[in-house]
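Help wanted!
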Amino acid sequence: DVKVTQSSRYLVKRTGEKVFLECVQDMDHENMFWYRQDPGLGLRLIYFSYDVKMKEKGDIPEGYSVSREKKERFSLILESASTNQTSMYLCASRGMPSYEQYFGPGTRLTVT
Amino acid sequence: GQSLEQPSEVTAVEGAIVQINCTYQTSGFYGLSWYQQHDGGAPTFLSYNALDGLEETGRFSSFLSRSDSYGYLLLQELQMKDSASYFCADDHNQAGTALIFGKGTTLSVSS
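Answered by r_m:
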């Protein structure tokens, strides 16, 4: 079974802090993704990566950066957290040529 | 821009059949996926349609019409455990890797 794990289920940070969200997958998938999920807005793509050290912006990359130094790990970085980044963050991975994305359990981030 | 439209809420009773529609306006459309998400859980993959027509997987079926930019998820013999949010998603990236999700349909199944 594919397993996607995220470093924290719940996180509380203060405005202006640098925040790291970590995601690890154990199925050697090429593609990894970061989404945020907000009520009424569905899942919105922040960044994705199709290979080590490669990244592509999604629909809402502003205020975020990512890092993929190893194939199994994809990190989302909030350089200076703001209250409008309070959200559920979901990581996913996908191995080509499969169509299926496997999601982690999510990190609920609260920025106060 | 890229967008997928689906109803926000659907209600039904156990044993019934429900259809969740999804219309899309996207460039570089590759195929339509469906995901299920229970409250507090992660989205899980249900189905994918690359070609026009109906794909059946047990009680769930998914349909795609490229000419109409339209698809639907059909859930039969509804059970209480089917109460969840359902998202349609479009494979839109040139590399065929990234998904754009609709805002989701909350299905409530009552006894």
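OP: Thanks! One thing I noticed: Chain B has a mean pLDDT of 91.
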